[in-house]
Design a protein that fits this description.
single chain, 4 strands, disordered C terminus, two-stranded antiparallel sheet, 18 helices, about 5% strand, elongated, mainly alpha
Length: about 450
C-alpha cells in the first residue's frame, strides 16, 4: 500500500492491461515525474502481460541487468541517469511484447484476416459466397440453418484464394445469425464473425467486435444491392435468347428496366467506390503504419480504436450521421423492392414465352399436317391470352415507373443530406453520384441552398 502503483486483484485476466494497474499520484516520489511514472507503469504492465496473458517466460535481456545486483547498483540507478534507465527498459519490454504479438500470435495476419472477411476485402471469396447463399438468404430467417450456411462459407473458402490463408485464420471464420424478428429474411440476420482469443482480444475487444459487426452489416447490404442489380442486368441482356417468342412485345419494357437498373448501378458503384477507396483503404493504410511504428501496446490499441472510429464515422454509422444513413438505406430499400418486382415480372415473361412457344409449335405441326394453323374457335382464346399478357405488362411497367420516381426523389434527399455534412469526402460522394447535375435539374426545388453553394465552391 506504500507504492505508487496500485493493483486491483479482482480484475480478470483478460482485463489485465486495461484496468488492473494504475498510478497513485499522491504516493509518487518527488524524484519521479508523472511522465516517468507512466513509463514505469507500462513496464510493469508489459512484463505481467507477457508472463500472465501471453504465457511467455523467455528472458528479457536488459543491457544493464547486472547493475542492480551489485552493492552500489541501486544508488547508481537512482540518480541523474534514472530517466535514461527507465526509458531503456521501457523500450526493451515494449519491443519484446510487440514482437511476441506479431510473431507468436500473428497479430498482423489476424488484422488482415478481419479486413478480408469482415470488411469484405477478399473480393473473390465474398462474391462466390454471395452466389452460393443468395437464394437461401431470400427466404425466411426461421428456415435458415447455421450449419448449412457454415458449410457454404467453407465451400467458398476452398473455391477461392481464401484457401491460401493460414489454417488457423480459416478456422476462425464462422457464420452467426442475429436475433430474429417476425418476417425477417436471411439477409436481415446473416453475418460473419472472426473469433479471436487472448492476448489479441486486448486489441480487438468486445466493443470492437460489435463495431465490426455494424460495419459488416452495412457493407453486406451494399454488396447485396450490387449483386442483385448485376443479376438483373445479366438476365435482361439474354432476353433475346431466352424469351425469343415475346421479345418483340417487350423491347420498350426492357428499355425501361435497363434505364432504372443502370441508374441504380451507378449510385451503388459510387457508394462502393467511396467505401472502398476513401474510407477503408485510406484508414487501413494509417492503421498499418501505426502498428508498424508503435512503441508500445497502448499505441496499437489506440490506433485500432482510431481506425474503427474513423471508419464508423465516414460510413455514417454513428449517431451524428443517423439521418444520412437512414436516407441511404431508403435507397437500398427501393432497389430491393425493384429487384422483387423484376423477379415477379421475369416469371410472367417466362410463362407467356412458354405459352407462345407451345402455340407456335402447334401451328407448325398443324400446317405440316395440311390443317389450318389457327382455327376460328382458337382465335378468341389466343386474343384473351395476349390481352391478359399486355395488361400484366402494363401493370408491371407502371410499377417500374413508380419505383423510378420514388428512387429518384429518395436519391435526391440523400444527396441533399450529404451536402450538409462537414466531411469533404461525403460532399464529393454527392458530386460523383450527380456528376452531370441530373438530379439537381430534376429536383431543383429540393437541391438548392447548400447543394448549389457546395457545387460552386468545389468547381472554383
Amino acid at each position: 500500500g506504500e507504492f505508487f502503483i496500485t493493483v486491483d486483484s479482482d480484475t480478470p485476466e483478460d482485463l489485465l492491461w486495461e484496468s488492473k494497474y494504475s498510478i497513485r499520484l499522491d504516493m509518487l516520489p518527488s524524484f519521479i515525474s508523472k511522465q516517468m511514472a507512466e513509463k514505469i507503469l507500462l513496464i510493469g504492465k508489459t512484463i505481467n502481460f507477457i508472463r500472465v496473458v501471453c504465457r511467455d517466460h523467455s528472458p528479457i535481456n536488459f543491457p544493464f541487468s547486472t547493475v542492480a545486483t551489485t552493492n552500489q547498483g541501486l544508488n547508481d540507478i537512482i540518480g541523474p541517469d534514472l530517466n535514461g534507465h527507465v526509458s531503456e527498459v521501457y523500450k526493451i519490454t515494449s519491443s519484446h511484447l510487440i514482437s511476441l504479438l506479431k510473431k507468436k500470435y500473428l497479430l498482423c495476419e489476424h488484422l488482415t484476416a478481419i479486413r478480408d472477411y469482415l470488411l469484405l476485402g477478399q473480393g473473390d471469396f465474398i462474391q462466390h459466397l454471395m452466389d452460393l447463399i443468395c437464394k437461401d438468404l431470400s427466404g425466411l430467417s426461421s428456415t435458415l440453418q447455421t450449419s448449412m450456411l457454415q458449410s457454404k462459407l467453407e465451400t467458398a473458402q476452398r473455391a477461392t484464394n481464401a484457401q491460401y490463408h493460414n489454417v488457423d485464420v480459416i478456422r476462425r471464420v464462422s457464420v452467426i445469425k442475429l436475433e430474429e424478428s417476425s418476417g425477417d429474411t436471411g439477409w436481415d440476420v446473416f453475418t460473419i464473425d472472426y473469433v479471436l482469443h487472448c492476448p489479441l482480444t486486448v486489441i480487438v475487444n468486445q466493443d470492437s467486435r460489435e463495431t465490426y459487426l455494424c460495419i459488416f452489416r452495412m457493407l453486406w447490404k451494399t454488396k447485396r444491392i450490387e449483386h442483385g442489380l448485376r443479376r438483373i442486368w445479366g438476365k435482361t441482356a439474354t432476353w433475346d435468347r431466352t424469351l425469343p417468342h415475346i421479345i418483340g412485345d417487350i423491347r420498350d419494357f426492357r428499355h425501361q428496366i435497363n434505364i432504372l437498373c443502370c441508374e441504380m448501378q451507378h449510385f451503388v458503384s459510387q457508394v462502393q467506390y467511396y467505401i472502398n477507396f476513401e474510407v477503408l483503404e485510406c484508414s487501413w493504410k494509417e492503421l498499418e503504419t501505426a502498428v508498424d511504428t508503435a512503441e508500445n501496446l497502448d499505441h496499437i490499441i489506440e490506433a485500432h480504436k482510431r481506425f474503427l472510429g474513423i471508419v464508423s464515422e465516414r460510413l455514417m454509422l454513428n449517431q451524428e450521421h443517423l439521418q444520412v444513413l437512414t436516407k441511404l438505406y431508403a435507397n437500398y430499400k427501393n432497389a430491393i423492392n425493384f429487384m422483387d418486382v423484376y423477379d415477379r415480372a421475369h416469371e410472367v415473361l417466362k410463362k407467356n414465352n412458354t405459352i407462345r412457344e407451345k402455340r407456335n409449335t402447334n401451328i407448325q405441326l398443324k400446317t405440316k399436317q395440311g390443317d389450318w394453323g389457327v382455327k376460328a374457335a382458337d382465335e378468341a382464346a389466343i386474343l384473351k391470352e395476349d390481352n391478359e399478357f399486355k395488361a400484366q405488362l402494363k401493370a408491371i411497367s407502371k410499377q417500374i415507373t413508380n419505383f423510378h420516381s420514388t428512387f429518384s426523389a429518395s436519391l435526391s434527399d440523400f444527396l441533399m443530406a450529404l451536402s450538409l455534412e462537414a466531411d469533404d469526402s461525403m460532399k464529393f460522394l454527392s458530386l460523383r453520384i450527380d456528376f452531370n447535375e441530373h438530379y439537381k435539374q430534376k429536383h431543383g426545388n429540393n437541391l438548392n441552398g447548400p447543394y448549389i453553394n457546395r457545387t460552386r465552391s468545389v468547381d472554383a
